[in-house]
Amino acid sequence: MPLRLLLVVVLVAGCARLGPSPEPPPPEGPTLTREELGRLLDEARRLRAKGDFPLARASVRQAIAGAERSQWSDQAADAHFLLGEIFGQENLPRQAADAFVHAYDVSRRAGDRARGLRALNALANTFLDLGEYDRASQVSAEALKLGRSLGDLQAQSRALNNVGEAHRFAARYEAALDAYNEALRLARRAGTPRDVAVILENMASTARRRGQLEAAAGYYGDALVAARQTGSADRVADLLNALTAIRLAQARPAEALGLARDAADLGRQQNLRRPLITAIQNEGLAAWGMGDRAAARRSLTEATQLARAMDERPLLAYAQWHLGRLALEAGDRAGAAQALEQALLLFRALKLGDEALKVEAELGALRGSQR
User: Fold this and answer.
1) In angstroms, rounded to a whole number, what is the distance separating the alpha carbons of residues 369 and 237?
2) What is the pLDDT of residue 333?
């Protein structure tokens, strides 16, 4: 069935309202046992974890063919879903959407509502990645209905969170917060702290977009509490960095410095690469905000060195930019020009146009003042 027609099935028809579609004739080939199909899927997961996506896809497709021949609909749905996840890791969202639609269609025909629900939520996330917010909302509405029919609080919460995301990205902030609040209520009832943390972080992002920094800080603080319950060190570090950024934007550098140090300590303990670089950079910005240029330079230089060593080019670009601005404020025009030129090259290579324009303006002003 072509992708467009399958999407119409997803968006117009819910699992509970449609009977199973006629089964297609099984493809030719040897019949596989469930154990053989399971081994193919396990091998695909192993290959995916190694980053060998072509071989992982080949193993999944072999499993799909075998499951369809043997009419194991649950394993066919799992295989299509895994294929979608692999495409997602490869940054191929259109192909991922196609795979998730097939996973949903197989589940729908088999009356497997739980697997269908999983596929719908994944499809909604893919549409969000594609910027197709109306489709994401429609798919999430179907997922919400299906979740309610199953009494699955976690699934309902995730569907409502996706509804909120679609509204947020479309700048419908009040509608987004309404959806998030209901998603949060259900996630707390379901006892899923990971989902609670994700929803609160999305609420914080919504508040930031509206310029409500103190509200955003409150949401980030609550998200930190939930994230610590999950034991996810990288999530905690990311949230600490996000809260630090709020305090920096509020010109509260002393609070920002304490948060940045907590994030840096966690990053070093858990060997968290990106969060550590961000935290050290934030330490520098907080020290700068407190008037300690020497400490700011040390931290920003360390962040630059780590970002270069770890080939984290976006973080390197920002660290260089901050170093250039700091050098300019300190009267080191030569150092400022060198750092800003390096930042400009990186921003251009990364196609970060807004940042590149700002650095160009700063370099132009610096060179003009040197004439």
Assistant:
1) 41
2) 93
